[in-house]
Amino acid sequence: MLSDTIQNLGWAVVFALVGGTVGIVLILVSAVFLPRFIDKMTPNLDEEKELIRGNRAVADYFGRVVAAAILGISLIVAAAILGGLIAALH
User: Fold this and answer.
1) How many domains does the chain divide into?
2) Domain carrying residue 20
3) Whole-angstrom distance, CA of residue 71 vs CA of residue 57
4) Is 15 exposed, middle or buried (0-12, 13-18, 19+ CB in 10 A)?
Protein backbone atom coordinates (compact mmCIF):
# COMPACT_ATOMS: atom_id res chain seq x y z
CA MET A 1 0.00 0.00 0.00
CA LEU A 2 2.76 2.42 0.93
CA SER A 3 4.76 1.63 -2.20
CA ASP A 4 1.74 2.50 -4.39
CA THR A 5 1.45 5.85 -2.65
CA ILE A 6 5.14 6.59 -3.13
CA GLN A 7 4.92 5.51 -6.78
CA ASN A 8 1.90 7.79 -7.34
CA LEU A 9 3.71 10.70 -5.71
CA GLY A 10 6.74 9.99 -7.91
CA TRP A 11 4.59 10.07 -11.03
CA ALA A 12 2.94 13.29 -9.83
CA VAL A 13 6.38 14.90 -9.49
CA VAL A 14 7.37 13.66 -12.94
CA PHE A 15 4.14 14.97 -14.49
CA ALA A 16 4.58 18.32 -12.75
CA LEU A 17 8.18 18.70 -13.91
CA VAL A 18 7.52 17.62 -17.48
CA GLY A 19 4.31 19.64 -17.69
CA GLY A 20 6.00 22.69 -16.21
CA THR A 21 8.89 22.44 -18.65
CA VAL A 22 6.59 22.03 -21.62
CA GLY A 23 4.47 24.90 -20.33
CA ILE A 24 7.45 27.22 -20.02
CA VAL A 25 8.54 26.36 -23.55
CA LEU A 26 5.02 26.98 -24.89
CA ILE A 27 4.78 30.34 -23.16
CA LEU A 28 8.18 31.44 -24.47
CA VAL A 29 7.31 30.34 -27.99
CA SER A 30 3.96 32.12 -27.82
CA ALA A 31 5.64 35.29 -26.52
CA VAL A 32 7.84 35.29 -29.62
CA PHE A 33 5.19 34.13 -32.11
CA LEU A 34 2.11 36.12 -31.04
CA PRO A 35 3.40 39.67 -31.69
CA ARG A 36 4.46 38.63 -35.20
CA PHE A 37 1.11 36.94 -35.78
CA ILE A 38 -0.84 40.02 -34.68
CA ASP A 39 1.40 42.19 -36.85
CA LYS A 40 0.48 40.02 -39.86
CA MET A 41 -3.22 40.17 -38.95
CA THR A 42 -3.16 43.97 -39.22
CA PRO A 43 -1.41 44.56 -42.58
CA ASN A 44 -2.62 48.16 -42.93
CA LEU A 45 -1.19 49.18 -39.56
CA ASP A 46 2.53 49.35 -38.92
CA GLU A 47 2.72 49.02 -35.16
CA GLU A 48 6.41 49.88 -34.96
CA LYS A 49 5.96 53.19 -36.80
CA GLU A 50 2.95 54.06 -34.68
CA LEU A 51 4.85 53.27 -31.49
CA ILE A 52 7.76 55.44 -32.63
CA ARG A 53 5.30 58.27 -33.34
CA GLY A 54 4.02 57.92 -29.79
CA ASN A 55 0.57 56.52 -30.55
CA ARG A 56 -0.47 55.22 -27.14
CA ALA A 57 -3.66 53.58 -28.42
CA VAL A 58 -1.73 51.20 -30.65
CA ALA A 59 0.66 50.34 -27.83
CA ASP A 60 -2.21 49.66 -25.42
CA TYR A 61 -4.13 47.56 -27.95
CA PHE A 62 -1.09 45.57 -29.04
CA GLY A 63 0.05 44.96 -25.47
CA ARG A 64 -3.37 43.92 -24.23
CA VAL A 65 -4.05 41.53 -27.08
CA VAL A 66 -0.66 39.84 -26.74
CA ALA A 67 -0.95 39.68 -22.95
CA ALA A 68 -4.46 38.21 -23.11
CA ALA A 69 -3.34 35.54 -25.57
CA ILE A 70 -0.36 34.59 -23.40
CA LEU A 71 -2.58 34.42 -20.31
CA GLY A 72 -5.02 32.21 -22.19
CA ILE A 73 -2.24 29.81 -23.17
CA SER A 74 -1.00 29.85 -19.57
CA LEU A 75 -4.45 28.82 -18.30
CA ILE A 76 -4.60 25.94 -20.76
CA VAL A 77 -1.12 24.76 -19.74
CA ALA A 78 -2.02 25.01 -16.04
CA ALA A 79 -5.18 22.96 -16.59
CA ALA A 80 -3.20 20.31 -18.45
CA ILE A 81 -0.61 20.09 -15.67
CA LEU A 82 -3.34 19.87 -13.02
CA GLY A 83 -5.05 17.10 -15.01
CA GLY A 84 -1.78 15.19 -15.14
CA LEU A 85 -1.28 15.59 -11.40
CA ILE A 86 -4.80 14.42 -10.62
CA ALA A 87 -4.36 11.43 -12.92
CA ALA A 88 -1.07 10.53 -11.24
CA LEU A 89 -2.51 10.72 -7.74
CA HIS A 90 -5.45 8.41 -8.44
Assistant:
1) 1
2) 2-89
3) 21
4) buried
* Distance in angstroms (rounded) separating the CA atoms of residues 74 and 15: 17
Asked whether residue 66 carries a pLDDT value surpassing 80, the answer given is yes
77/81 Cα distance (integer angstroms)? 6
- What Å distances lie between residue 64 and 35, 44, 70, CA to CA? 11, 19, 10
Long-range contacts of 35-41 (CB under 8 A, 24+ apart): 35/62, 35/66, 38/62, 38/65, 38/66
DSSP, res 1: -
Percentage of the chain beyond pLDDT 90 is 0
User: How many Cα neighbours within 13 Å face the side chain of 5?
Assistant: 2
User: Is the pLDDT reported for residue 84 higher than 70?
Assistant: yes
Please tell me the predicted confidence (pLDDT) of residue 1.
Answer: 66
